[in-house]
């Protein structure tokens, strides 16, 4: 991996001295590091230490180097911002978008991933205010590490210790190139392809309740949508994942809006899509929902007939996203997914082409689902996928196969190429 621009924000806590070790790890790995200590941090470790270790000027004053517009430039140029130690105060200021010093203005200008490594006393970490701030930051796609458990400054111990510098370093490197550095250490090929872009991705299977304990669901694991979120994040996009039921964890650095039903997913997707450059709809959305949801658990009764479920049509979210784009004249790239089976009336691709025309999205990622000739399920819950990406403008279909991560990378590359070809 080539050297990158890292901003190291240092908060005002005793663990600030450990940030010097983290800084060393970054510079020894060949990265250029700009250190921005808060005013309180310089009470613990002074600016000369940071300057000597980073080999660069250090300030926390927005009125220094005004001619180079420091408070805008540093955040814009950063490939990654790491805040260690992140105090309760810094987490609060970042969560509420305050901009009262050079570090917080830089955080507001960030275009790449941001990582916070908290350190504070256990009571402060567990306080509802801090936990709410951490949840807010995580929902925005900021990676916030959990503090380590152990001895704190005084006689107390518990969760609140700054994670070890080597662990923060590893988490930071994973955000720069999540898991995808080649054997030769070559740069991750997706890096920067979507930098500055906002991407919304739907994933997982919706669940339509019948009563308080039962629902109609589907077999989607969410793996492909989550792989897309990781790939888009890796490509430098700011990613919002609209997550229905998932069997897999959400990658760090991705903002998540959790939803249950198709109707909830529609609301969340339309809201998020309003400011997005790209919308990718990988969720398995229920086409129908029960027309009524029983208030209590539906009972077996010997004195009455067994219940009959009547279904009503769910909105087609993809069609609605395309409609909003048209109505708002938005310059937005919309990607749909189609899980298809062929039959005597047409092949998988015939059905997919008809769907692409009907839905009006730009790209449609098509895969054949269901058991293969040997009776083995081809897609749902599996780690591999084999797709064809069709384009509405008639461009040649693009095949992609391999792990769901490989397929996600292929989709992201195609999306990035199309965005680059479009005027912004
Ligand atoms: O019509 P079908 O379900 O095959 O279309 C699949 C595509 O449409 C996927 O991108 C899926 O996320 C989206 N979809 C949707 N809302 C629905 C049904 C499907 O957004 N109600």
Characterization of this structure:
The strands form five sheets. An eight-stranded mixed sheet has the order 12-11-8-13-16-17-18-19, with helices on both faces. Helix 13 (348-359) links the parallel strand 16 and strand 17 (363-368). The protein is globular, with a radius of gyration of 24 Å. The protein folds into two domains: 5-175, Rossmann fold; 198-421, 3-Layer(aba) Sandwich (Rossmann fold). The protein contains 14 helices and 19 strands. With 424 residues, the chain is an alpha/beta fold. The two termini are 29 Å apart. Helix content is 34%, strand content 22%. The structure holds cytidine-5'-monophosphate. The site of cytidine-5'-monophosphate has 13 residues, from helix 12 and strand 16.
Structural class comes to alpha/beta
Quick one: CATH class of the largest domain? Alpha Beta
CATH topology descriptor of the largest domain = Rossmann fold
Note the beta-strand portion.
15-25%
Number of helices: 14
Strand order within the widest beta sheet: 12-11-8-13-16-17-18-19
Based on Cα principal axes, name the global outline. globular
- What's the total number of strands? 19
Major beta sheet summary: 8 strands, mixed
Spans where pLDDT lies below 50 across 5 or more residues: 178-188
* Rg, nearest Å: 24 Å
Count of discrete structural domains: 2
Small ligands present: cytidine-5'-monophosphate
The helix content is 25-40%
């Amino acid at each position: 991996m080539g050297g990158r621009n890292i901003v190291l924000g240092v908060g005002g806590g005793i663990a600030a001295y450990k940030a010097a070790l983290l800084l060393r790890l970054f510079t020894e790995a060949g990265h250029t590091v700009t250190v921005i200590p808060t005013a309180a941090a310089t009470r613990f470790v002074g600016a000369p230490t940071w300057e000597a270790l980073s080999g660069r000027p250090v300030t926390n004053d927005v009125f220094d180097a005004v001619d180079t517009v420091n408070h805008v430039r540093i955040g814009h140029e950063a490939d990654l911002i790491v805040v260690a130690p992140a105090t309760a105060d810094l987490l609060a200021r970042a969560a509420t978008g305050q901009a009262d010093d050079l570090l917080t203005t830089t955080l507001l200008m960030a275009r790449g991933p941001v990582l916070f490594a908290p350190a504070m006393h256990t009571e402060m970490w567990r306080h509802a205010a801090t936990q709410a701030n951490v949840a807010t930051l995580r929902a925005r796609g900021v990676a916030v590490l959990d503090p380590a458990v152990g001895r704190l400054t005084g006689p107390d111990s518990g969760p609140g210790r700054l994670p070890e510098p080597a662990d923060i370093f590893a988490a930071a490197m994973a955000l720069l190139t999540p898991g995808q550095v080649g054997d030769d250490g070559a740069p991750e090929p997706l890096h920067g392809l979507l930098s500055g872009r906002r991407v919304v991705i739907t994933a997982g299977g919706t669940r339509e309740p019948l009563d308080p304990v039962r629902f109609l669901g589907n077999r989607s694991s969410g793996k492909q949508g989550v792989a897309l979120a990781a790939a888009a994040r890796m490509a430098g996009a700011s990613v919002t994942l609209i997550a229905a039921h998932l069997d897999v964890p959400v990658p760090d650095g991705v903002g998540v809006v959790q939803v249950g039903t198709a109707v909830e997913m529609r609301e969340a997707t339309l809201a998020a899509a309003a400011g997005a450059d790209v919308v990718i709809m990988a969720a398995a959305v229920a086409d129908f929902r029960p027309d009524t949801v029983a208030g209590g658990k539906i009972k077996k009764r010997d004195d009455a007939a067994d219940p009959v479920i009547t279904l009503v049509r769910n909105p087609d979210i993809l069609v609605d996203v395309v409609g909003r784009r048209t109505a708002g004249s938005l310059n937005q790239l919309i990607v749909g997914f189609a899980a298809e089976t062929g039959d005597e009336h047409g092949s998988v691709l015939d059905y997919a082409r008809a769907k692409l025309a009907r839905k009006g999205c730009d790209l449609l990622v098509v895969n054949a689902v269901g058991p293969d000739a040997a009776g083995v399920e081809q897609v749902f819950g599996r780690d591999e996928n084999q797709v064809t990406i069709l384009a509405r403008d008639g461009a040649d279909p693009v095949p992609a196969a391999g792990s769901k991560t490989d397929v996600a990378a292929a989709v992201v590359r195609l999306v990035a190429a199309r965005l680059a070809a479009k005027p912004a």
